[in-house]
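Data availability (excerpt). The following record was deposited with the supplementary files.
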Amino acid sequence: MDAHSKAGPTSNIRMRNGCLSVLSAPALSLLKPHLTEVCLHEGTILWEPNDRTADVYFPLSGLISILLGMAEGECVAVGSVGREAVAGAIFESGRSQLLTRGSVQIGGTFLRFPGSELSRAAQKNEELKNLIAFCQDWVLVQAQQLAACNAVHSADKRFCRWLAECYQRMEGETVHVTQESIAAVLGIRRTTVTLIAQKLQENGFIQYRRGNISIPDLPKLQGAACECCRTLDQRYWPSTRLAHKAKIEAIMS
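Predicted structure:
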C-alpha cells in the first residue's frame, strides 16, 4: 500500500499537521511512539466500511476523501480531510454500523497511527478526547453541507469550491490531481471537468497542466465558488477549534 514508510515521525511534524501543531507536549508524547510516516499514492484505500480496527491518518501533505458507497458500486464523497484534521474509521464511533470508505485523493505524506491506540490515549488525555470529538464534528458538518451543495449548486461552482478548499488546506501548494479523481469526488463526468477546467484557465482563475493545478488568485476563485466555500471555512477545522480551546484554557488557568 505504501510507497515507503518508516517508524517514528519526522522532527518537524508539529509544523506540518494542524492538529499536532497545537497539542501540548504531554498529549503529543502519547502519540509519538505509535506514529509511522508513510507516503501514499492517489487511490490508496485506507479503510473500508465496518473496519473498526483501521488506522487513523494525520495528513502532512495530500488529501483524504471520505466516501459513501452505493449499491451499484459508485461512491459519493461526503467529506475530505487534509492538514487541518485527522481521518479514519474511528471518527464514526457511536454508530452501530460503519458506512464510509477512506481513500487518498491527492497523494502525499501522512502519519499513520493505530485507531485502537488513539482511543486508549484519549481516555488518558482531555486534548486527545477533544481531537476525536472535533474531527467527528468536522466530518458531520461537511456531510450535511455537501448534501445540500450537491443538490442545488452547479458543477462549475462546486468545482471552484472544492479546489479552493483543497488549496487552503494544502497551504497554497500546487494541487496534483487527475481529472478522473475530481469527477469522481464531485459526482460529474470527466468531460465536464475538462470543460470547466479549460474555462477557468482561459479566465485566469487557475493554471492547469498535466494534472497540476495552481491558483494565482485565491479570492478570485472563491468568488466564483458556491456559498459552501464560505460556510465550510476554517472556523470548523479541528485544528482551529483545538487552538481556540487551548487559548481559552490558558487564559483561565
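Summary of structural features: Residues 4-150 form a domain with the Jelly Rolls fold (CATH 2.60.120.10).
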